[in-house]
Automatic annotation (TrEMBL), chain A:
Top-level taxonomy: Bacteria, Pseudomonadati, Pseudomonadota, Alphaproteobacteria, Rhodobacterales
The protein's name in its UniProt record: Carbon monoxide dehydrogenase
Domain FAD-binding PCMH-type: 1-167
InterPro entries: CO_DH_flav_C, CO_DH_flav_C_dom_sf, Diverse_Substr_Oxidored, FAD-bd_PCMH, FAD-bd_PCMH-like_sf, FAD-bd_PCMH_sub1, FAD-bd_PCMH_sub2, Mopterin_DH_FAD-bd
Gene3D superfamilies xrefs: 3.30.465.10, CO dehydrogenase flavoprotein, C-terminal domain (3.30.390.50), Uridine Diphospho-n-acetylenolpyruvylglucosamine Reductase, domain 2 (3.30.43.10)
Pfam families recorded: FAD_binding_5 (PF00941)
Automatic annotation (TrEMBL), chain B:
Database matches in Gene3D superfamilies: 3.10.20.30, [2Fe-2S]-binding domain (1.10.150.120)
Taxonomic lineage: Bacteria, Pseudomonadati, Pseudomonadota, Alphaproteobacteria, Rhodobacterales
This protein's name: Carbon monoxide dehydrogenase
Keywords: 2Fe-2S, Iron, Iron-sulfur, Metal-binding, Oxidoreductase
Superkingdom of the source species: Bacteria
Organism: Pseudaestuariivita atlantica
Protein's UniProt keywords contain Isomerase: no
Record InterPro entries: 2Fe-2S-bd, 2Fe-2S-bd_dom_sf, 2Fe-2S_ferredoxin-like_sf, 2Fe-2S_ferredoxin-type, Beta-grasp_dom_sf, Diverse_Oxidoreductases
Molecular-function GO terms, alphabetical: 2 iron, 2 sulfur cluster binding; metal ion binding; oxidoreductase activity
Domain 2Fe-2S ferredoxin-type: 2-78
Length: 261, 161
């Protein structure tokens, strides 16, 4: 890893100011960024740690009933503290391993938008709002392809707001070596319809499976899950072909509906 | 260069570090606490697990600067000052929970974190908690057995496979 300056501000304003610096980058839990820097795939001149900003840590319930999670809240804290949204707590509880969950943060995961990560599916599947130091971004506008998001340079995720569904479930088919999702499907049933978000499968990153959403909004039953989506554009690697991943989407969606119902 | 101060195994420790100094590097190279191992340096194996403010973390994937002010515990802090092994360490010895011993510091620290959270874990819970700890020797069986024994479960009926 190349050397860098380390800063640890204690307010959002100071962090935003520090991130204006040349080649400055935010550091969440470091569970993705530090391995990336060791491989010299990233070499920021300054790392601005967000771990000292208490106003972006923790979980609360908003006036509209949404569950609000600070951007620097760790996976372990969400697993333990998001009891108001059990499927979300369960998603966090199965990210990586305990040591990763003790450091990794929701803001870091959503900023990174790994195509096989779990939180992007939860956020898109819940129609969450990603709140930054500058604005609020609907999940539908936020995810813009593999490792790509609507965030601007130096923008910090301060909070993520999850509307709490009537029922929800996340099914993760674990890739046992990386512990990421080979394919993961997040299903959430709201009063105004069902959302289905798929991670690990598409070459464009997390996406909504709209055919399944329409079918499940009409009939929330595993038997209503449509045929597997086309394999075009699905990831193919040594762990699974694109056809295999497409098949898993259908199977995991049905399992998620069964588990949620 | 930042100066960091922390409590390590109950004693104050401080030193100058670079931004990029990892916690595991600070512990091993600057404090001489070489019990914490580096197996992979890629956040996969868990040989480097230590406790920071009571929580298990991979010391190869945390900056020393991030541990400034923290309470850190390493494998060197597990036995009593007179060398008497902790319950978990003794159970690893009694149940042959190690062969080469390279993964053992991380295994013991993860096990200690688990038992602090859940005093009586099931075999399944132990196996899940150890997902981030890789052992190339034992096949895990006796590690799980040792942790079950340390948690007070009767393991006499579990075969040494
Ligand atoms: C062994 C292992 C297993 C894993 N398994 C899984 C898994 O099963 N599922 C899964 O989803 N993930 C998994 N991960 C990834 C893990 O969840 C990371 O914690 C997460 O991807 C990144 O979060 P972080 O807080 O560590 O961010 P960092 O690594 O610190 O940062 C990642 C990126 O986000 C930026 N960033 C960080 N915080 C913010 C913020 N608040 N606002 C804006 N930008 C920010 C950084 O600048 C950087 O670009 C795994 C990681 C490891 C090492
Ligand atoms: S050395 Fe830290 S996880 Fe392997
Ligand atoms: S005892 Fe050798 S790696 Fe575990």
């Amino acid at each position: 890893m190349y050397n860098f300056e380390f800063e640890k501000p204690s307010t959002i304003a100071d962090a935003v100011a520090a991130l204006q610096g040349d080649e400055a980058q935010a550091l969440g839990g470091g569970q993705t960024l530090l391995p990336t820097m060791k491989q010299r795939l990233a070499s920021p001149a300054t790392l601005v740690s967000l771990s000292g900003i208490s106003e972006i840590k923790g979980i609360c319930t908003g006036d509209d009933g949404a569950l609000c999670i600070g951007g620097a809240t760790t996976h372990a804290e969400v697993a333990a503290g998001a009891g108001a949204y059990p499927a979300l707590a369960d998603t966090a509880a199965h990210i990586g391993d305990p040591a990763v969950r003790n450091r990794g943060t929701i803001g870091g995961s959503l900023a990174n938008n790994d195509p096989s990560a779990c939180y992007p599916a939860a956020a898109l599947g819940s129609g969450a709002t990603i709140v930054t130091n500058a604005r609020s971004i609907a999940a539908d506008d936020y995810f813009q392809g593999m490792f790509d998001t609507a965030l601007d340079e130096g923008e910090i995720i301060t909070e993520v707001r999850f509307p709490v569904p009537e029922k929800a479930n996340y099914q993760k088919f674990v890739q046992p070596a990386s512990r990421f999702a080979l394919v993961g499907v997040f299903v959430a049933k709201y009063a105004d319809g069902v959302r289905v978000a798929v991670t690990g499968a598409s070459e464009n990153g997390v996406f909504r499976w709209t055919e399944a959403e329409a079918a499940l909004s009409a009939n929330f039953d595993a038997s209503a899950v449509p045929d597997a989506p086309a394999a075009d554009g699905m990831i193919a690697d040594l762990h699974g072909s694109s056809a295999y991943r497409a098949h898993l989407i259908k199977v995991l969606t049905a399992r998620a509906v069964e588990a949620a119902a | 260069m930042p100066n960091v101060s922390m409590t390590v195994n109950g004693k104050a420790a401080s030193g100058e570090v670079e931004g990029r100094t990892l916690l595991v590097g600070f512990l091993r190279d600057q404090l001489g606490l070489t019990g914490t191992h580096v197996g992979c340096d890629t956040s996969q194996c868990g040989a480097c697990v230590v406790h920071v403010d009571g929580k298990a973390v991979k010391a190869c994937t945390m900056l020393a600067a991030e541990a400034d002010g923290a309470d850190v515990k390493t494998i060197e802090g597990m036995a009593a000052p007179d060398g008497t092994l902790s319950t978990i360490q003794q159970a690893f010895q009694d149940h042959h929970g190690l062969q080469c011993g390279f993964c053992t510091p991380g295994m013991v620290m993860s096990a200690a974190a688990l038992l602090a959270e859940n005093a009586s874990p099931s075999e399944q819970e132990i196996r899940e908690y150890l997902e981030g700890n890789i052992c190339r020797c034992t096949g895990y069986h006796n590690i799980v057995k040792a942790i079950m024994a340390a948690a007070g479960h009767d393991v006499s009926a579990i075969a040494a496979e």
